[in-house]
Amino acid sequence: MTAPVSETATQALQEDAPIEKPPRGAPWWANQRIGLLVLVVLLGVLFGILRPAFYNQQLVIFPLLRDIAMFTVVGLAQLCVLSIGHMNLAVGRMAAFSMMLTGISYDLFHLTLYSGLLVGLVAGTAIGALAGWVIARTGVNSFVVTLALDFLLLGLIPLVYTGLTDNAAFVTKPPGMRELRNYSLADVCVGNVCGSPAVPQLALFAVVAMAVVGWIYARTRLGRELLMTGSSVKAAELSGIPTARRVITAHAMSGCLAALAGFMLAVSTGSIKATIGEEFMLPSFLGPILGGTLLAGGFVSIWGTLIGTALTSVIRKGLDLLGVGLESLNIYLGLILLVALSTDRVRTVLSERQEVRRQ
Amino acid sequence: MTVVLRRTALCLAAVALVATGCTTKPADSASGGAPKDDASTGTSAGPVTLKDGSQVKLALIPGGAHPYFQPWKTVAAVDKADFKLGDATFNETGEWDQGKQNNVINSLAAQGYNAFGIFGVSPTDINSTFEDLKAKGFAVGSLASCPAGDTNAADFCLSTDVEAAAYKAAKATIEAIGGEGAIVHLTGNNVDSNTQRRIAGVKKAIAETNGKVTELPVITDIDKDLSTAQKAVADLLASKGKEIKGIVTTAYNPAVAAADGVASSKLPIKVVAIDDDAKILSGIKSGGVAATVTQNPTGQAYIGGWLLALLQSKQCTMKTPGVIVDSGSFVVTKTNVDTYDEERKAKTTALKTEFEKQLSCQ
């Protein structure tokens, strides 16, 4: 029964490209993520010198960390499918679909905040698993399947919203939603000592997501099987890994994380609307790829996703504070990213030369 | 290598934690929050003149770049000069995303801007943004669009009544086609509550014809850019051009595309546009466009800036916080194309008088 599925899955997974992993024995400064981390810190210092308001806890750091947390979860959603060499072009629309069901659960069934979140996570997992199942069953490329799913949801979601709401949004706010948007760790106290007012409570969702995804890839058999499927489907199959099931699992994880990111966006902006997730697709690739996750699969970096996301968010926030106009903002953003990646390449080349000299 | 990275990350996390700092619980948590308003409760009677705007830094923030908001850029400078404000700026980097717009607002607040005239990207979300700003003691006006629903958390909303403007546009279209035939409505983002209001306004006008005028399915989501609108108009004219007698547009790009498309196809379709782009005005003069419904962006920014300065300087408070005022919409045809701006300026003056009655001033 499973053999045909495995064969088609094998065909679907033939998206391999040469895998370039960090050379073994390279010096610590050649590590891409450390380089990015240094860059984020340097940019933070630079923007702080140019505009001391950059360190304003309430108006700059708090919303910046909230954004970084949300886009890190978006990045993790893409990372899960990148780990098997796939991509999920419907990551934003999966968030919108899941939040639509969460919105319905709040509006029509008056569920609590976290029960509604659970509905969304289940819906996200289900729609992700469906995408994975179609890919595994038909052997069609993940790019095509998720693109088709994106179009399907693009048509379906507005239909439901216009049918069920007056303003194309679910505006019911369950108790706790407003607090979750505004509360920081300063509202979490042990005795008289409270946390930092600059760290939003919403960021804890990203910490939990990073911990869980990190644990799966670093400590469990499932994670190793996913990475092995991404490295080489044939080798994975010969090792007895049920690759078709792993494809479904990776896409289900992606859908679940997309739903979590959609929830974080809905909480931070104020309502659940049809356009949730429209801005997710590019950042979902940017964070993981900048952080070292391979497009071809087989290697992921959870910390790298956080740092890559932080880099783009810090640059944007800094440019905002410097008052860079709309025309120039994206040019500077692109230029800084280009310099960052070029520096990274220079660093890798220098480290390789050092290795050659040693030998 | 991984160990090094983890250690570095943990060290940085610890540094970040120390940098952002722990706090101690205040003796009375409930005593924080927004600064108290020190304006007197006296009622204004007659013209209100701003006494001292030097401490007011005004920010006019549209949802993103759009031709409609370009007058705001000029008016921000006029506000600064006329009311002797500390500063005034115009920032259109929101890129039509509520999250990005919130970031822009927070960045401006961090730089000392304390009075905000905002066109919210998402009418269903913008009240949360207004609540945040009000809690921090800033004056906030909702300009050019009001929040969805019955509540406006800003100090006031000065906006075109979009349903009324769409109704006027549809009535002008019905009149232009002689009171019978099929018309089609071209508009913007379907999942925007303002679009839903525009659709309702057009349907209301059509319903009043008792079936003499029929409406083809509404064409939405074509205000992203001009080429999207041009393609939609070309498809529409190719497929149904012969059965359509009128086109009513309630968004900028569809209006320009419809005016161009109908002119080049030479079909006898009457187009009623929105706003006063130079192309549309020349279309009205040449007869290619039957009418347009213009709005009052200059009045919104000028009166909004004056009002925000009065509120932030604590000279005045709103008698009814969250009051909604229509900034006006004006039907322009060949007969008044050269004089409609006078009508608009008169409306702006009237708006000031109307708001003076809404204020309690020292």
From TrEMBL, chain A:
<keyword id="KW-1003">Cell membrane</keyword>
<keyword id="KW-0472">Membrane</keyword>
<feature type="transmembrane region" description="Helical">
    <location>
        <begin position="143"/>
        <end position="164"/>
    </location>
</feature>
<feature type="transmembrane region" description="Helical">
    <location>
        <begin position="111"/>
        <end position="136"/>
    </location>
</feature>
<dbReference type="GO" id="GO:0022857">
    <property type="term" value="F:transmembrane transporter activity"/>
</dbReference>
<dbReference type="Pfam" id="PF02653">
    <property type="entry name" value="BPD_transp_2"/>
</dbReference>
<protein>
    <submittedName>
        <fullName>ABC transporter permease</fullName>
    </submittedName>
</protein>
<feature type="transmembrane region" description="Helical">
    <location>
        <begin position="34"/>
        <end position="56"/>
    </location>
</feature>
<feature type="transmembrane region" description="Helical">
    <location>
        <begin position="285"/>
        <end position="307"/>
    </location>
</feature>
<dbReference type="InterPro" id="IPR001851">
    <property type="entry name" value="ABC_transp_permease"/>
</dbReference>
<feature type="transmembrane region" description="Helical">
    <location>
        <begin position="68"/>
        <end position="91"/>
    </location>
</feature>
<feature type="transmembrane region" description="Helical">
    <location>
        <begin position="198"/>
        <end position="218"/>
    </location>
</feature>
<dbReference type="GO" id="GO:0005886">
    <property type="term" value="C:plasma membrane"/>
</dbReference>
<keyword id="KW-0812">Transmembrane</keyword>
<keyword id="KW-1133">Transmembrane helix</keyword>
<feature type="transmembrane region" description="Helical">
    <location>
        <begin position="319"/>
        <end position="341"/>
    </location>
</feature>
UniProtKB/TrEMBL annotation, chain B:
<dbReference type="InterPro" id="IPR025997">
    <property type="entry name" value="SBP_2_dom"/>
</dbReference>
<dbReference type="GO" id="GO:0030246">
    <property type="term" value="F:carbohydrate binding"/>
</dbReference>
<dbReference type="Pfam" id="PF13407">
    <property type="entry name" value="Peripla_BP_4"/>
</dbReference>
<protein>
    <submittedName>
        <fullName>Sugar ABC transporter substrate-binding protein</fullName>
    </submittedName>
</protein>
<feature type="signal peptide">
    <location>
        <begin position="1"/>
        <end position="27"/>
    </location>
</feature>
<dbReference type="InterPro" id="IPR028082">
    <property type="entry name" value="Peripla_BP_I"/>
</dbReference>
<dbReference type="GO" id="GO:0030288">
    <property type="term" value="C:outer membrane-bounded periplasmic space"/>
</dbReference>
<dbReference type="InterPro" id="IPR050555">
    <property type="entry name" value="Bact_Solute-Bind_Prot2"/>
</dbReference>
<feature type="region of interest" description="Disordered">
    <location>
        <begin position="26"/>
        <end position="48"/>
    </location>
</feature>
<feature type="domain" description="Periplasmic binding protein">
    <location>
        <begin position="62"/>
        <end position="311"/>
    </location>
</feature>
<keyword id="KW-0732">Signal</keyword>
<comment type="similarity">
    <text>Belongs to the bacterial solute-binding protein 2 family.</text>
</comment>
